[in-house]
Amino acid sequence: MSAQRAENAEHADGVEGPTDSEAPLLDVRGLRTEFRTEGDPVVASNGVSFSLDRGETMGLVGESGAGKSVTARSIMRLIDTPGEITGGEVVFDGEDLLEKSEKQMRDIRGNRIAMIPQDPMSSLNPVMTVGEQIIETIRRHQDVSKSEARELAIESMDDVGIPDAAERIDDYPHEFSGGMRQRVLVAIGFSCEPDLIIADEPTTALDVTTQAKILDLLNEMQERENTAVLMITHNLGVVAQTCDHVGVMYAGNLVETAELEDLFERPRHPYTRALIDSIPEVDSEYDELPTLDGAMPDLSDLPSGCNFAPRCPHATEACRTGGDPALESVGDSTSRAACIHAEDLDLSESTAVEAGSGRREIDRSGEPLFEVRNLKKYFSAGDGVLGNVRLSWDGGGLPSVERRYVKAVDDVSFDIYPGETVGLVGESGCGKSTVARTVLRLLEPTDGEVYFEGEPIHDLGSGAIRSLRREMQIIFQDPHSSLNPRKPVGRIIGRAMERHDIATGEEKRERVGELLERVGLSAEAASKYPHEFSGGQQQRVAIAHALAVEPKLIVCDEPVSALDVSVQAQILNLLNEIQAETDISYLFISHNIGVVRHICDRVAVMYLGKIAEFGRIGDVFSAPFHPYTESLLSAVPHANPNRKTDRILLEGSVPSPIDPPSGCPFQTRCPKKIGEVCETDVPELEDVGDDDHRISCHLSIEEMSERDSFIRAERQSAETVESD
Amino acid sequence: MAVEQHREEADGDDGFLSESQKERLGSFARKFRSNTKAMVGLFIVVSLILVAVFAPFIAPYEMNETNIEDRTEAPSVEHPFGTDDLGRDIFSRVVLGSRISLYVGFGAISGALLVGAVVGVVSGYAGGLTDEIIMRVMDAAMAFPPVLLALTLLVVLGPELVNVVIALAFVYTPYIARVSRSAALAERNEAYVESAVARGESDTRIVFSEVFPNCMAPILVQGSLNVSFAILAEASLSFLGLGAQPPRPSWGLMINTGRGFMETAPWMLLFPALAIGIAVVGFNMLGDGLRDVLDPKVEAIE
Amino acid sequence: MYNYVIRRVGFMAVTLFLVTLIAFAVTNILPGNVALVILGPNATEESLAALQAQLGLNRPLYVQYFDWVLGLLQGDMGQSLRFGEPVAALIAERLPRSLLLAVTATLIAVALSIPLGVYAAVNQNEAPDLTASMFAFVGISMPIFLWGLVFILIFAVWFNLFPTGGYVSPTEDLVGSLHRLVLPASAMGFALTAYIMRMTRSSMLEVLSAEYIKLARAKGMSQRVVVLRHALKNAVIPVITVIAFQFSYAFGGVVVLEEVFFWPGIGRLTLTAIQSRDIPLIQGCIIVVALIYMISNFAADLLYAYFDPRIRYGGEE
Questions:
Q1: Does residue A149 contact residue A142 with C-beta atoms inside 8 Å?
Q2: Chain B neighbors of C150, CB-CB under 8 A
Q3: Which residue in A592, A614, A660, A491 sits closest to A282, CA to CA?
Q4: Which of C212, C233, C313 is opposite residue A123, by nearest beta carbon?
Q5: What CATH number did the domain enclosing B216 receive?
Q6: Most buried one in A389, B53, B177, C317, CB count within 10 A?
Q7: pLDDT tens figures, A343-392
Q8: What is the band of A660 on the pLDDT scale with cuts at 50, 70, 90?
Q9: Interior angle at CA A433, CA A431 and CA A439, nearest 5
Q10: Which of A42, A465, A487, A549 to mutate to test the interface with B (most CBs of B within 10 A)?
Q11: Residue C229 near chain A (CB below 8 Å)
Q12: Which ipTM value was assigned to this complex?
């Protein structure tokens, strides 16, 4: 950073405060933020206290609704009505921010405390160039001319790794990819060299490979500028890879603060333990994920006593009646926990049982239940009839008309055997959800064949397809939208039975009740409407709806990605239990590598509409790797501070499926690209081992085997990775 | 279809209908009651309907009872709104005129709803070429200003009150269709529709049993707002002499006559104008309030 | 952008075709046709048939339609039955007067409504907002012609500030012309203000809750900058469409308003045509009014594209 800039920043700060280097940069004491409602006020942040030193990174984790974002916004005094900060102190660099006037606060925001927001798609003003948005921040807080500010803006874009910053500064946000937009937001955040950055879920909206790059960038920027970072996230993996110490929030309360290592090795609050355990880790194998019952209580309807007591395995009568426990130091450790039993409990052992019996063996000797051959699905680019028609002036002279297509799925083949779970994994836009819909003919395939028990689904008429739907069901990502809001859930489930003449009248009602109980709800729930259930419960209803017709295959399209981790674990366990009972098959679509690792028998890794690698879980997660699989797996942040993988960071972003690269779709970003052959020849999906492990790459098996495995089961290999 | 619908209803009664359903109604009523706009609107609309129903009992005089001696009399105890150029009691005529306004308003919009909602929802759900064609036609129909199109239609149909209803129903159909279509378009992307397809339901059933009920809120809101437009349009048409014909006590017609006596008897113009204003404000408020109450976004925040 | 404009032109062509079809259909299902109107109810069968043959009315409808459209394309809208003049000439004379009225009204409305709408949104649910919303409500509820009558009653009859109606060409007498323009234009502008203000307010409210507004505040921007630089630019984009729609709505309203103010524009011409069942003139008038609607919407689409960089630059993906 230029000396001039540093000087300016100091000028803007005015007086150099009596900064005692010992005092924390930020000291939040008893911060309380309430939201006025028609009834009692809802306390979103209940007496939160923590402190943060200069240059340090603190994570604030919790599930949705825990109050972490509200706490962060309260520090900047950015709470909108009907919210209100009703108590506490926010001491920043020796001064209480809650005492400042609004005008004084505006001089601090963006200047000494900056924010990096969550959603790169909606956080930039669409009608202003990115340059304008960076420059206005600089000019707001620093006394520089327009042209100087522009220079500084270009410099800051350079710093965050935006290529050709000088040319791109006058571009509008929509001309950048999601990852690049997030870089712009990082540039805005760091543009005035703040003392504190509040990063509010800065990578949640991003794909895992992009997330890895942004986290690296944040770490790098922070070290260079010696900025303190408050990292708000729901992802313990992100915390483990970036933070020095951590605060865990639950239902408006800060329930534990600890040094990073301590938090993972010896959590002091039962909730922290449960949170860590319910994450399916990429490198471990479990028979069953440990879960908590229920979900986080609604802030407007909190239990008396400890908020966590109703779900806590260690709760006693004293927990339920004793009021909110205070956050207190535990023993002689630096950890603090809000649990009356913190001193007595030893939570250092994971409750997760690592796989004892190993995976069920799938019998693949017979005919597959489901077979997809060379499936293609092209969408016309653009809306409406003729929306895909474009005039092209490329040839000179008269414009030529061209029709353009998005090649969402381009030649995909795989099969599923009875009782098996096959995963489709990949980043957004790789076509995995389109595969899910096309194989069920919810979308018409452009080309290719799909067989269900030998029946050619691609050839069936609409009536025959409708009958066959009894055998194949689907569960969607958003349970809220997948249940008709105007109908009681009993009728939704019952309708499925009626449609396929499975049961009517009294029998139907009985079976609806049984099904609801099977998925962990009560039979009485039948008369309730979808909005009366929580997200996890709605997903249970959706599962019951799918099971109502006794299908042989369920396509699960990101069934847990809208859910919090503790609820996610419940649903994954439920799906596994049902499979064990009924020998049902799943086609499981997910972007979450850990989840796929946990639930699937075989997995297809997709990139840009094609399968890059396909095989058994153990094979795909071990050498040889497709270069894309390898970078994808390496990018996953482990929820374990001791496990740092050497990440392979991909350059650029996924090319447009309208105009995919020639040859191998991955060649534009592949770190192991050999040369011309990658650009000219499309690689075949070829066998690389005995167990039907197939990879689509021009590299030799040796070249794809430089890394050994991502699975910790082979412990020595994990060691090797670490020492890299 | 009818049979299926019936079974659906029966299903609702035999046990699955429940506390929850009552609670939904209750929650709707509570929200409605706490919305001032909706309540004022409802009050005005209900009063209007009552006035229209009991008009002959409320009006102190026959609507066409002329009395040349008492013509253009200022408001008084005998004639609270004064009298017109033929000595007719304006209060009585305004009261009886409510019947015409409501008849046209409700009549025209019922017709428009019947056609527009179905066309719009089907078009939005079907998408593709069908949708494109239907919506182009609706767009073209909306290129003509409502009153102008209605006037032209009335030239064809003849200036009868029933024709005013038909013409306005025709004119407002595209407006209803457009709102219904965008509602259906939004619903079509909801996963429950895909879930119904995956369950093996037919398109007809999905449109009418799954999508349609979820589109009702915006359609009703638009309907109630359009009643006020139709009342206005009727007044305009009658004002121009192509709607209700004398001696019918149409508010628009009364304003037209009153125009000539603006300087000597402004009440001939003021009271019918006020009546139109109140009726229109009433339906607008009801529609607006309904929108607030039914808006699912508002529900989600609570 | 090119593709966007070309697509809009395409849409407009299709709509235009359908508009002519509707206009033709509506006027040709008349129970009494043109010949009957010319000859009156006492005409004999023979003379009727002769005239029909002469006017080409006994040809199949689709032939008549194509004949008519072909004429339209060449600017020939036929002869007015009542005035005995070419329809095109009659409209060409009246149209500018109506445009003067509608444009002035729209300008008044825009100048008033956008600041009011922004002000109301920024002070949501406070006194200024509630007052403005009430005003908007009443404004929307009263038909344009009622505003006209009320204005005449107050400003012409009671206070005698302006004439009650009539039209003077601005080229002949600029002051007199403006004097007569004030009442009708403000009556119409008043009604339009209400709509546009309401739209501005709700659009502004939506934008103010956007993430990028929250970020702008987190950057330390003042309320003024947030509202005027960040929010307004985004909020006016949808308002443009509403303004265009309101302009064409105003044009629809002129039929009644011109009658109220004795303003000899296309509205009164249409009314005369309707009253005298002058079918070629009716067809001509409604086509022209529909054309104005389409042109203003097309202009809105272009403006929209201009203001929204997502369409201006590329808009491809």
A1: yes
A2: 273
A3: A592
A4: C212
A5: 1.10.3720.10
A6: B177
A7: 888 888 777 766 555 566 788 888 899 999 999 999 887 655 566 666 66
A8: confident
A9: 100
A10: A487
A11: yes
A12: 0.82
In chain B, the largest separation of any two C-alpha atoms, in whole Å, equals 77
Among chain B residues, CA nearest to C269: B148
At A650, which amino acid appears? L
B274 domain residue, yes or no: yes
Given a contact cutoff of 8 angstroms between Cβ atoms, the answer to whether C286 and B148 are in contact is yes
Structural domain that includes position B249: 34-301
Instruction: Report if residue B238 sits inside a domain.
Output: yes
Closest residue of C to A107, CA-based?
C220
Query: How many Å is the maximal CA-CA distance in chain C?
Result: 86
- The pair of structure tokens assigned to A132 is 């304008």
Gap between the Cα atoms of A453 and A371, Å rounded: 8
Number of domains in chain B: 1
Residue ranges and CATH numbers for the domains of chain C are 2-73 (no CATH), 94-307 (1.10.3720.10)
Chain C interface, best mutation among A97, A103, A174, A406, by max C CB count within 10 A: A174
> SS3 of A114, please?
strand
The tokens describing B271, both together, are: 């009271």
Task: In whole angstroms, give the CA distance from residue A179 to residue A167.
Answer: 18
pLDDT at A723 over 80: no
The shortest C-alpha distance from C237 to chain A (Å) reads 10
Express each pLDDT in A276-324 by its tens digit.
888 887 776 667 788 777 788 888 888 888 989 888 888 888 888 878 8
- Pick the closest to residue C215 from A97, A130, A116, A154 (CA basis): A116
Look at residue B277 and give its three-state secondary structure.
helix
Query: What are the residue boundaries of the structural domains of chain A, listed by start?
Result: 1-103+237-358, 414-603, 621-723
Whether A123 and chain C come into contact, CB under 8 Å, resolves to yes
SS3 state at A695: strand
In a domain, B10, yes or no: no
CATH dotted code for A1-103+237-358: 3.40.50.300
Q: Do domains A1-103+237-358 and A414-603 have the same CATH topology?
A: yes
Partners of B266 on chain C (C-beta within 8 Å) are 153, 157
Six token digits for residue B49: 């309907």
Q: What is the largest CA-CA distance in chain A?
A: 84
- CA nearest C125 in A: which residue? A81
Task: For residues A141 and C225, give the distance between their C-alpha atoms in angstroms, rounded to a whole number.
Answer: 14
All residues at 6 or more sequence positions from A589 whose CB lies less than 8 Å from its CB, including other chains: A423, A424, A425, A432, A433, A435, A436, A555, A556, A557, A558
Within 10 angstroms of residue A536's Cβ, the number of other Cβ atoms is 22
Which pTM value belongs to this model? 0.83
- The CA radius of gyration of chain A, in Å to the nearest whole number, is 27
Helical H segments across chain C, by residue range: 2-28, 34-39, 45-55, 61-73, 87-122, 127-141, 144-151, 174-208, 211-218, 223-225, 232-261, 266-275, 279-307, 309-312
Task: Give B4's pLDDT tier (boundaries 50, 70, 90).
Answer: very low
Pairwise CB contact (< 8 Å): A124 & C212: yes
Q: Which residue has the higher pLDDT, A92 or A708?
A: A92
What is A414-603's CATH number?
Answer: 3.40.50.300
Helices (H), chain B: 2-11, 19-34, 36-53, 55-58, 90-126, 128-142, 146-157, 161-188, 191-199, 203-205, 212-239, 251-259, 267-294, 296-301
pLDDT of amino acid A255: 93
Give C217's contacts in chain A (Cβ within 8 Å).
Answer: 78, 109
CB < 8 Å to C218, chain A: 76, 78, 109-110, 114-115, 117
State both tokens at B83.
Answer: 């009298």
> Closest partner residue to B194 among A476, A490, A491, by Cβ?
A476
